[in-house]
Specification:
Length: 311
């Protein structure tokens, strides 16, 4: 295969994975017009249309989908071969593609970026923040980070955080106007701030539990969003009751008196965050180092011995 042909196929795979010429062009370091020309050359050379384009979206045709499905394992194998060749020199290099939830990106990955780069300066971290629970295999990611209850099947899972208590909270102003719920059924007469899952569009049902009795509540209110920041602001501004992970911002607002906890006896603990990767694929040295970094273990620049920093 000539180099130009491989570049065309790589460009095609990039467009399919990102469902966008603009995003794929940015990832590949090309202009959108140059990428579009590359795809046209590929379609002309093969004599078949590979992508359906509209002003708002791009998706593979039936022939394009078949080609992409065959390309994915081939490209993954080529990337693994290159990484293996580089590792033989004692240097860890290449690109590590991670698909992660917003909460994990902000609270687990971001604080440790400098530490990982210092240990592995030749590794490029390509981090996609995605609350839509995308398929990491189809997207050719090396690993993903999800809440434990939403892990994909046939994956190796590595715990990153403990299980999280859930907290129902509201502003003192809201509670002064509407009273406090005493039982889950009381939520039906309250304004509740809802989370909508990106991708599926489903609205989160609140899990509640007390003395072995568990239930899920579908609640309603003036705000439904897939943004934690929007939901936090809605609660702080007195628009309703928020159901959230027990995390630093929520605890800080409770301590400052800006939010108050309700239904404390009904709040369960839900699974924490896990990094996961396909069980059929051995982790690269870069991924092993990334996992150690996220778990706050010592990481050696040469990928050598590590020891846990946790007692």
């Amino acid at each position: 295969m000539r180099g130009s042909e491989f570049a065309e196929l790589k460009a095609f795979a990039g467009v399919v994975e990102r469902a966008s010429f603009a995003r794929a062009a940015d990832h590949l370091g090309l202009s959108p017009s140059a990428l579009s020309q590359t795809i046209r050359q590929l379609e002309t050379r093969l004599g078949v249309r590979l992508l359906n384009r509209t002003t708002r979206s791009v998706a593979p045709t039936e022939a394009g989908a078949r080609l992409y499905d065959r390309l994915v394992p081939m490209m993954a194998e080529m990337e693994a071969a290159v990484a293996e060749a580089v590792s033989a020199t004692g240097r860890t290099a290449g690109t590590l593609r991670i698909n992660t939830l917003t909460i994990a990106a902000k609270r687990v990955i971001a604080p440790r970026l400098g530490r990982f780069h210092k240990a592995y300066p030749d590794v490029v971290l390509d981090i996609t923040v995605d609350d839509g629970l995308s398929d990491i295999v189809a997207g050719r990611f090396d690993a993903g980070i999800r809440v434990g209850e939403r892990l994909e099947k046939d994956m190796v899972a590595v715990r990153l955080t403990p299980d999280h208590p859930m907290l129902a909270v509201a502003s003192p102003d809201y509670l002064a106007r509407n009273g406090e719920p005493q039982q889950p059924a009381d939520l039906h007469r309250h304004a509740c701030i809802n989370w909508r899952f990106p991708g599926s569009g489903a609205v989160y049902r609140w899990p509640l539990e007390r003395k072995g009795k568990a239930l899920e509540m579908a609640v309603a209110g003036p705000i439904v969003s897939n943004s934690q920041e929007v939901m936090h602001e809605a609660a702080l501004q007195g628009l309703g009751i928020l159901y959230s992970y027990d995390d630093d911002p929520i605890r800080a607002w409770i301590s400052a008196g800006r939010l108050k906890r309700v239904l404390a006896g009904w709040s369960p603990t839900v699974p924490g965050l896990f990094l996961y990767y396909p069980s059929r694929k051995l982790p690269t040295q870069a991924l092993r180092g990334f996992i150690d970094c996220l778990r706050d273990r010592d990481i050696a620049p040469d990928g050598g011995q590590r020891r846990s920093r946790q007692k």
